[in-house]
């Protein structure tokens, strides 16, 4: 799969054997060889120094990515492929082959023959015209071109050789380009210009949302940015067509207005509008998905096997094996507990694994950015194997560090909320199946015979209970600010209404 074609002049040195090897390299990559000349001979005479041991190939390098800077991308790909084959080769010249398609009008061919019935002739003709517009008399033939070309193509003899040329057919347009009120750019150029208009329109909406949610001191800046984005939207719209600047500018104004309505329109007044956090998350998700797609579609099967498969397999395996207890272990450690002190149902371990995978998705910004860089043929994204290996290791470290940081933050924040709620005597928030509850602890044996770990038990005060795990009642002493562990067979846990006091003094 390729998006761009680049005509490259590749000089290969070394003689017949190296030339044959270079031709095999071109064939393996699907790059057609247009021709070849001795170095300094033919069209290269007077341009390069003659060398009988050197040959210059005209090669069409095909590669994915954008048109922008594709000659650089083609040069790097050709050099890398020939370097792998241990050939001495130089890409002397690279020129993009732009083969964009004109946007011609499509026409539907239909039958205009009518039965020779005199009664109600005008009414029948009007009804037939209406039925023709609805496709009632379509012949199943569709043509493309100007109006004159379309009629000529419609009345050609059938390509299958079946009979004479039809004369009772006509054509109707399937779009409005035939009127000529505007002149379009070629297909891909039009798509690029439409993308610019949409991008600037979205910038208007985003800046407006940030302006609405900012303080007075910063709001003016966002309003100015929204206005600048609006000007850029109109300018992009005016360049949307070769002719018809007013029509393009009008469409751009409509696009910017739609973006404003989505950001500040009736949904916003109803209290269901976008806020800054939602906009950032939405933009981040779109950017990450797009970047990963651009990265994936440029990888060959060899790159998948060498880089992606080991990375995904190692991360997925480690994540699924450990994620069921990672968040709970970090939560327990922040409360000075051990992982075995929390009896977590398996379903909540699965939920915590999913949560950890969402953390993993946040650090995919780096490979997504790499995908955009490769799509745009940036120089740092197309270098040799050594640099890619370094990037691979750095990517793995960044992903692991990012997931660890986010997991630590999540568990630490949950533990802080639990300790703060305990200090105030309020209900503590749950955390992936761990639901602390206030209880009154009633000893089943004399206090001096209680076995456990932590501060001395005071039956008059309620304790925050994390449940019973492995025969041990795991409690939190709000006064001491540390956990208390007692043998479950030696105490009775009685639910308390709050963390204030135990009814009846225990």
How would you characterize the overall build of this protein?
With about 500 residues, this protein is α+β, with helices and mostly antiparallel strands. The protein folds into five domains: about 90 residues, Alpha-Beta Plaits, CATH 3.30.70; about 70 residues, no CATH class; about 80 residues, no CATH class; about 110 residues, no CATH class; about 70 residues. The chain is built from 13 helices and 13 strands. The strands form three sheets. Strands 9-12-11-10-8-13 form a six-stranded antiparallel beta sheet, with no helix packed on it. A hairpin with a 4-residue loop joins strand 11 and strand 12. It is extended, with a radius of gyration of 36 Å. The relative contact order is 0.07. The model has no long low-confidence stretch (mean pLDDT about 80).
């Amino acid at each position: 799969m390729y998006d761009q074609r680049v005509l490259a002049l590749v000089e290969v040195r070394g003689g017949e054997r190296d030339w044959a090897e270079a031709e095999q390299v071109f064939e393996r990559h699907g790059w057609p060889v247009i021709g070849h000349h001795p170095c300094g001979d033919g069209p290269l005479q007077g341009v390069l120094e003659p060398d009988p041991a050197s040959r210059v190939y005209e090669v069409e390098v095909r590669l994915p990515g954008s048109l922008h800077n594709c000659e650089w991308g083609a040069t790097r790909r050709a050099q890398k492929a020939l370097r792998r084959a241990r050939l001495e080769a130089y890409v002397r010249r690279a020129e993009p082959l732009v083969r964009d398609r004109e946007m011609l009008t499509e026409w539907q061919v239909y039958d205009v023959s009518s039965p020779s019935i005199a009664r109600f002739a005008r009414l029948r003709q009007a009804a037939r015209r209406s039925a023709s517009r609805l496709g009632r008399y379509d012949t199943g033939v569709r043509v493309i071109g100007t109006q004159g070309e379309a009629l000529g193509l419609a009345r050609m003899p059938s390509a299958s050789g079946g009979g004479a040329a039809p004369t009772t057919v006509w054509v109707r347009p399937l779009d409005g380009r035939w009127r000529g009120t505007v002149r379009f750019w070629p297909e891909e150029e039009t798509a690029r210009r439409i993308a610019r208009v949409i991008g600037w329109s979205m910038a208007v909406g985003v800046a407006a949302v940030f302006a609405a949610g900012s303080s007075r001191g910063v709001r003016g800046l966002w309003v100015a940015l929204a206005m600048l984005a609006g000007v850029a939207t109109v300018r992009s719209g005016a360049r949307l067509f070769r002719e018809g600047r007013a029509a393009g500018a009008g469409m751009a104004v409509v696009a910017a207005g739609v973006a404003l309505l989505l950001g500040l329109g009736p949904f916003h007044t109803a209290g269901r509008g976008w806020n800054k956090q939602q906009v950032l998350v939405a933009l981040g998700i779109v950017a990450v998905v797009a970047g990963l797609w651009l990265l994936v579609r440029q990888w060959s099967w060899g790159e998948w096997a060498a880089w992606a498969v080991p990375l995904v397999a190692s991360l997925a395996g480690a994540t699924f094996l450990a994620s069921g207890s990672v968040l709970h272990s970090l939560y327990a450690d922040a409360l000075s507990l051990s992982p075995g002190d929390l009896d977590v149902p398996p379903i909540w371990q699965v939920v915590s694994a999913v949560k950890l995978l969402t953390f993993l998705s946040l650090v995919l910004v780096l490979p997504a950015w790499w995908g955009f860089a490769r799509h745009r043929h940036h120089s740092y994204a197309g270098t040799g194997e050594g640099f890619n290996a370094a990037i691979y290791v750095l990517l793995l470290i960044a992903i692991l560090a990012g997931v660890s940081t986010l997991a630590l933050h999540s568990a630490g924040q949950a533990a802080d909320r639990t300790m703060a709620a305990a200090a105030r005597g309020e209900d503590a928030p749950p955390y992936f199946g761990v639901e602390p509850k206030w209880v009154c602890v009633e000893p089943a044996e004399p206090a001096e015979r209680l076995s456990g770990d932590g501060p001395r038990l005071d039956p008059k005060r309620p304790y925050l209970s994390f449940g019973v795990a492995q025969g041990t009642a795991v409690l939190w002493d709000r006064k001491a600010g540390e956990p208390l562990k007692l043998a479950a067979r030696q105490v009775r846990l009685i639910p308390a209404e709050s963390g204030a006091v135990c009814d009846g003094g225990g």
